[in-house]
Amino acid sequence: MKRHPVIVVGGGPVGMCTALFLIGRGVPVLLIERNEDLFEDPRAATFHPPTLEMLAPSGITASLLADGIIAQKWQNRDRRLGLIAEFDLAILADQTEFPYRLQCEQHKLVAMLRELMAPWPEFELRTGETVLEVEQLGDHVRMRTDKDEYFCDWLVGADGGRSVVRKSQPFVFEGFTYDERFLVITSTYDFERDGFSYSNYVGDPDEWSAVFKVPADRPPGLWRAVFPTSPSDEEADLVAIDSATQRLRRLVDSDRPFELTHTNLYTVHQRVADRFRHGRVLLVGDAAHLNNPLGGMGMNFGIHDAENVARAIRAALESGAEAAIDRFDRQRRTVANEFLQSMTVANKAALEERDPEVRAARQAELRRIAADPALAHAHLLRTSMIAGLRYANAIE
Ligand SMILES: Cc1cc2nc3c(=O)[nH]c(=O)nc-3n(C[C@H](O)[C@H](O)[C@H](O)COP(=O)(O)OP(=O)(O)OC[C@H]3O[C@@H](n4cnc5c(N)ncnc54)[C@H](O)[C@@H]3O)c2cc1C
User: Fold this and answer.
1) Where in the chain are the domains?
2) Rounded to 5 degrees, what are φ and ψ at 162?
3) CB of 104 closer than 6 A to ligand 1?
4) Which residues have a Cβ under 8 Å from the Cβ of 167 and sit 6 or more positions away?
5) Whether the CB of 35 sits within 6 Å of ligand 1
6) Pairing of strands 29-33, 3-9
7) pLDDT given for residue 58 in this prediction
8) Which residues contact 296 (CB under 8 A, 6 or more apart)?
9) In angstroms, rounded to a whole number, what is the distance separating the alpha carbons of residues 121 and 237?
């Protein structure tokens, strides 16, 4: 029986980064991914500064910069009033080498990581193989797939929101699911001509939106807009090109011609596992936590999990002690609850606020923050995920 030091389940952005960070610390990895080909659904496209810092030593950040779009500024807008406040991330140049958001689709990150790691002897990738069951056997883990069985010292579940790894162990996935689904519309409509920046949050009590630019396959790129939908609406009607076109027209009130390239509907959850560790089975990324996409944080947070878990596993393999694994659990779970969940829930609540007085007060507050460099600096440290990561790493 061959015993691997680490098996990672799931080759999405978080599983691939976990492998990258482990191999960077000298730990070989077997990674099992269900899909043969890359899955190109339009999900994450925003990279925050700490994530770019973590990926820089491997050269991946340089590749993302070559393929991506720098969003130097982001805006809070109101659907009727227009621009409320604009934030320029350049103010964080005293804190990070990458003081901006980088817009690049998550499947491109996965493709870059596959290409980088393919020749590495420490990286074994098995695609087209599905993990069915995970069982703990004292000092090691047994995993069964639809093709074979494997053994390892540590198993990392990076297999997404419906994680088989999580369900195979007594984890509890606490939280809730929103009634309404989120509709993502991708189009050629150029919002920059209407004064939008490359990343925007548009508040409205009836139909808020998040609008951002993605590089797509060619310049000038495409724009994505995320909308809430009514729980009673039929999926077929929501994703129909005609109704989606009308929805986008309502947002920009323009008669310039544009073309829709995609519509997608997502069920959105706010959940965090009650533990990120059960014995020798660890959870990272969407397997451990799910949140709404307002703020562009889910994948970034998962990559921060990956960096932390790689450090912890390396320390455990080296010392035989498990204190670092417990610390990974404490650090990442605490910030998942205190930052990731609370910020994304608050982002949605602010965008859809119905009370005009509360909305006006919130807008006045945003203007005040944007106009005061010290307040803007603190606000951007939080929203760019730098403060949360520092807070996590300081937990003993
Ligand atoms: C509309 C939308 C927009 C978003 N925008 C952003 C954003 O801008 N920024 C951001 O940070 N986040 C964003 N997110 C969230 C982000 O997409 C996720 O957090 C991210 O994909 C999580 O990565 P992951 O690797 O943990 O999981 P996934 O991307 O779900 O990858 C899991 C992988 O595991 C594989 N797998 C599953 N089960 C098995 C099995 N049994 N055996 C083997 N393999 C298996 C799957 O095939 C998949 O490849 C957005 C999400 C949505 C829906």
Assistant:
1) 3-177+269-393, 182-266
2) -100, 25
3) no
4) none
5) yes
6) parallel
7) 98
8) 44, 45, 46, 48, 101, 199, 212
9) 49
Tell me how far the alpha carbon of residue 267 lies from the centroid of ligand 1, in angstroms: 13
Q: What are the CA-CA distances from residue 91 to residues 95, 297, 380 (Å)?
A: 9, 20, 8
- Residue to substitute in 43, 110, 132, 227 for testing ligand 1 pocket (most ligand atoms within 8 angstroms of CB): 43
For the chain, which ranges sit under pLDDT 70?
none
Query: What's residue 355's pLDDT?
Result: 98
Stated pTM of the model: 0.98
Can you give the pLDDT at residue 38? Answer: 86
Architecture of domain 3-177+269-393: 3-Layer(bba) Sandwich (3.50)
| Dist. CA 271 → ligand 1 center (Å) | 14
CA distance 334 to 272: 10
- Give the CA distances from residue 143 to residues 3, 133, 273, 281, in Å, rounded to whole numbers and listed in that order: 11, 6, 21, 11
Question: Does the beta carbon of 46 sit less than 6 angstroms from any atom of ligand 1?
Answer: yes
Main-chain dihedrals φ then ψ at residue 310, nearest 5 degrees: -65, -40
Check pocket membership of 302 for ligand 1, CB cut-off 6 A.
yes
In the structure, how many helices (H) and strands (E) does the chain have? Answer: 13, 21
99 lines ligand 1 (CB under 6 A): no
**Strand locations in 231-279 (E):** 260-266, 269-273, 277-278
Nearest atom, ligand 1, residue 16 CA? 25
Confidence (pLDDT) at 219 = 85
Residue 86 contacts residue 198 (beta carbons within 8 Å): no
User: Per-residue b/e over 331-368, b at no fewer than 16 CB within 10 Å?
Assistant: bbbebbeebbbebbbebbebbbbeeeeebeebbeebee
pLDDT at 126: 98
What's the pLDDT score for residue 42? 85
Question: Does ligand 1 have an atom closer than 6 angstroms to the CB of 50?
Answer: no
> What is the identity of the amino acid at 126?
R
Token pair of 210, please?
């998040």
Q: What is the pLDDT of residue 39?
A: 83
Sign of the four-CA dihedral 296, 101, 351, 358: positive
Q: Report the separation in Å between the CA atom of 160 and the middle of ligand 1, taken as the mean of its atom positions.
A: 5
Residue 303 C-alpha from the chain's centroid: 8
